[in-house]
Amino acid sequence: MGKPGRSHWNAHSCPALGRCPAVGGCDETHMQERLTRCGKCFADSMRKVDVWNWCNLSEFIVYYEDLTNCTRVQSSAAGCHWPNPPAQTFIVGIHRRFFANCTMDRARWEDPPEEVLIPLIALPVLLTVAVAGLVVWRSKHAGQLL
Question: Quick one: 43 and 90 in the same domain?
């Protein structure tokens, strides 16, 4: 499937806002309900992306941006600041659901075998000693030509 265009939903249209923010502050229960709607919209959008492309950010970045904006708007609509721990937990859940198999292959560094390592260490040490010896010898015999 090709790269997505602008999503069919956004933070304002997909989850119906329904009510105003709580006057007394953050209504976490209401925010969780709203975030669930954001997650449903994201899941619907991700169905357009082939599963084997879920680890390719360029295939779903528009949908992910919409999810982020949705969580921000819905948190604010519930009278909560953003980011906040429940919203972060929600987003981590989304990551576990959709991106659990998207691990970064990191190279595991290990020392080369001794047959390679010893010459790589010994050669510069021996060259340094040889050049230092040559400099000392040359300084003692500065008046003589080679």
Answer: yes
